[in-house]
Amino acid sequence: RNLIVESNLLFRLQHPRIIGLLGVVVPTSDDIALVMEFMDKGDLFECLQRTKQPTNAVGWAGDKGTYALHVAEGLASLHTRSPPIIHRDIKARNVLVDSAKGAKICDFGESRTRTFEETMTSNVGTARWIAPEVLINEDYSEKADIYSFGVLLSELDTHAIPYSDSTLEERQIMQLVAVNRLRPTFSPDCPEQIQHLARACMQADPMLRPDATRLVRTIMTILGSFVTL
């Protein structure tokens, strides 16, 4: 079912920061396969594991900043549609990277459109990236994606899964995140502008988080300041 949902969404989404769907193959009545555009560097998580870029402004002025901007642009495309589309599973594994085309959001199997009369409470996504309001089954909106983007910034910085340095069990991590007592950490060299943006994205109150369009503008400003260093 998720593949059918994903194919229907991708056929409607045509954007440079969203993975392209080339076609659908149905080899048998019980099988379906999606044919996506090729991205030569694979997913962002694996890309970060292979390359140890600097965590300071030099690293963010290069690929790290570009990938963050591209994901924000993809989210802006989703969130400004009518009705908005919530991805619901933003993380490095769900971003594909290409040496020429940059970064593109993929894996839309959990995505849903949201009308303003509709409330969403179903718990989806991957635990360490999930917004507090989703963890406690409160109503949520596209601002849940913004929280996950803040967590993704920590992945870009540390090249590691969030909370990978913690001795806490998964359940304990989720409980502390839900009551706003735990957030991902950043490396000492990570630029303060990036950490400030991540903290803004991961605020407890979804209404205080920036929207995706503002994210794009902020990241462009930050990257511009790095170029002039």
From TrEMBL:
Coiled coil: none annotated. Pfam families: PK_Tyr_Ser-Thr. GO terms for molecular function: ATP binding; protein serine/threonine kinase activity. SMART domains: S_TKc. InterPro entries: Kinase-like_dom_sf, Prot_kinase_dom, Ser-Thr/Tyr_kinase_cat_dom, Ser/Thr_kinase_AS, Ser/Thr_Kinases-Pseudokinases. PANTHER family: PROTEIN KINASE DOMAIN-CONTAINING PROTEIN, SERINE/THREONINE-PROTEIN KINASE TNNI3K-RELATED. Gene3D superfamilies: Transferase(Phosphotransferase) domain 1 (1.10.510.10). Residues 1-223 form the Protein kinase domain. SUPFAM superfamilies: Protein kinase-like (PK-like). This is Protein kinase domain-containing protein.
